């Protein structure tokens, strides 16, 4: 591999011809606004694309559970600090029995509207 004149890189660099696909994983703490057996409403400062699939992790009362979710709707709102925020409705794709049991406990305790994290 030949180097260009004036190139000060220590290691060789290779040009990519065409598309090179990759993935990026980001973890964001989100506020859970409400939850049901079929899905949840979360508050975020980052919009998620409609119909995209993500993994939502619940950390509550000593439980660490995660579930794949599909974004069903995204509504822009003004947050308390005046910044743009989003209410994101997600549908549970494959809820574990332990997560459904936790949600049942929240609903029985009357915490469905403000359950969780």
Helix fraction, binned, reads 10-25%
Overall pLDDT confidence: 84
What is the overall shape? elongated
Q: How many extended strands?
A: 5
Strand content: 35-45%
Structural class: mainly beta
Largest sheet data: 5 strands, antiparallel
The poorly predicted ranges are none
Spatial strand order of the main sheet: 1-2-5-4-3
Treating each run of at least 4 consecutive H or I residues as one helix, how many helices? 1
How widely separated are the two ends? 53 Å
Describe the structure.
- The chain contains one helix and five strands.
- It is mainly β and 117 residues long.
- A hairpin with a 2-residue loop joins strand 3 (53-60) and strand 4.
- The longest helix has 12 residues, at 97-108.
- The relative contact order is 0.22.
- The mean pLDDT is 84.
Care to give the gist of this entry?
The chain has 117 residues and is mainly beta. It contains 1 helix and 5 strands. The protein has one helix at 97-108, and strands at residues 31-35, 39-44, 53-60, 63-78, 84-92.
Topology record:
Elements: E1 31-35, E2 39-44, E3 53-60, E4 63-78, E5 84-92, H1 97-108
Antiparallel strand pairs: 1-2, 2-5, 3-4, 4-5
Please give a handful of descriptors for the protein shown.
117 residues; five-stranded antiparallel beta sheet
